[in-house]
Amino acid sequence: MPTRKVAIIGAGASGLCALKCCLDEGLEPTCFERSKDIGGLWRFEENPEEGRASIYRSVIINTSKEMMCFSDYPIPEDFPNYMHNSKIMEYFRMYAQHFDLLRHIRFRTSVCRVSKRPDFASSGQWEVVTESEGKQETAVFDAVLVCSGHHTDAHLPLSSFPGLEKFEGWYLHSRDYKNPQSFLGKRVVVVGIGNSGIDIAVELSNVTKQVFLSTKRGSWVLHRVADNGYPFDFTYISRFKQFLQNLLPPNVINFFLERKLNARFDHTLYGLKPKHR
C-alpha cells in the first residue's frame, strides 16, 4: 500500500507538531508556509504581514512552559516559566531541528485552494493548489490539516465610535502596535480588557502622560503567578481540581475562585467586577 500523503497548511505551533505526528505515523507530510519562516503567531516582525497574526515586541505568553510544551520535547529547565516571544521561537527552532522537520516545509508557498477530487467518495483524496513565486502547482493528498491559526484579521469596528472622523489624534488596532515609544507623553485610551489590552495599557503607563483602560462590562483578572510563586495554570489545572469541579455546584466553585482573585485585589474597588460569575 502506497504511503498516504498529507498536506499541512501553516508552520506555526500546530503545524509543527502536526508535521511531527504525521512522521511518527509513517505518513508523507508536506507543510506549506506562506511566509519565510516557522513560528506563525510567535514570530515577531516590525511590520505586520498580510494573512499572518502580528504581535508586539514585549509579548510574554500567558501559559506556563510546563503546560504549553510539546509532550515529547520538554522546554529546557533554564527557560523562564512564562516565556518572551523570542524564547518561544527559540524553543520551536529546537523542536524543528531535533525532529528534522524543516526539510518537509515549503516556505513562501501559499495555499490557494483545497477541493475534493471528483472520485472523493471512493478515494477520499483532496486536490491542493499552491502558489510560489508567481507559479501555481496542483497536487493530490490523502488528507489535509489546516493549521493556519485564527488571529490573522484585525477587528476594528469603526462604526461603533461615532465622531471618530473628527478625532484629531490617531488610532490603531493592537495588531499594529509594536512598542510604546510613539506614545511618549501622550494621553491614551485602550479599548478592551482582553489579554493584549491589559498588556498594552500596562506597558504604555511607563511612558505616557496618562492611560485609560476602557471596558464595557469588567473582567475577572487572573494573574500568571499563583500561591508560592507557582504558575497559575500549573496550580489550578489538574485531575484533582477537575474532579472537584465536576463534583461541586458551580456556585461553590465560583465563590472560592472569586475569593481567591479578590484576595489579590478587590475587583469591586477598582470598578472591574463584571456581572458574570
From TrEMBL:
Pfam families: FMO-like (PF00743)
Membrane topology, as annotated: Single-pass membrane protein
Transmembrane segments: none
SUPFAM superfamilies per the UniProt record, alphabetical: FAD/NAD(P)-binding domain (SSF51905)
One GO cellular component term: endoplasmic reticulum membrane
Top-level taxon of origin: Eukaryota
Single GO BP term: lipid metabolic process
InterPro entries in UniProt: FAD/NAD-bd_sf, Flavin_mOase, Flavin_mOase-like, Flavin_mOase_5, FMO-like
Alphabetized UniProt keyword annotations: Endoplasmic reticulum, FAD, Flavoprotein, Lipid metabolism, Membrane, Methylation, Microsome, Monooxygenase, NADP, Oxidoreductase, Phosphoprotein, Transmembrane, Transmembrane helix
MF-aspect GO terms: flavin adenine dinucleotide binding; N,N-dimethylaniline monooxygenase activity; NAD(P)H oxidase H2O2-forming activity; NADP binding; trimethylamine monooxygenase activity
Catalytic activity, reaction form: trimethylamine + NADPH + O2 = trimethylamine N-oxide + NADP(+) + H2O; hypotaurine + NADPH + O2 + H(+) = taurine + NADP(+) + H2O; hypotaurine + NADH + O2 + H(+) = taurine + NAD(+) + H2O; NADPH + O2 + H(+) = H2O2 + NADP(+)
Subcellular location: Endoplasmic reticulum membrane; Microsome membrane
Enzyme Commission number(s) from the entry: 1.-.-.-
Cofactor names: FAD
Major location category of this protein: endoplasmic reticulum
Functional note: Acts as a Baeyer-Villiger monooxygenase on a broad range of substrates. Catalyzes the insertion of an oxygen atom into a carbon-carbon bond adjacent to a carbonyl, which converts ketones to esters. Active on diverse carbonyl compounds, whereas soft nucleophiles are mostly non- or poorly reactive. In contrast with other forms of FMO it is non- or poorly active on 'classical' substrates such as drugs, pesticides, and dietary components containing soft nucleophilic heteroatoms. Able to oxidize drug molecules bearing a carbonyl group on an aliphatic chain, such as nabumetone and pentoxifylline.
Protein family: Belongs to the FMO family.
UniProt protein name: Flavin-containing monooxygenase
Protein source organism: Malurus cyaneus samueli
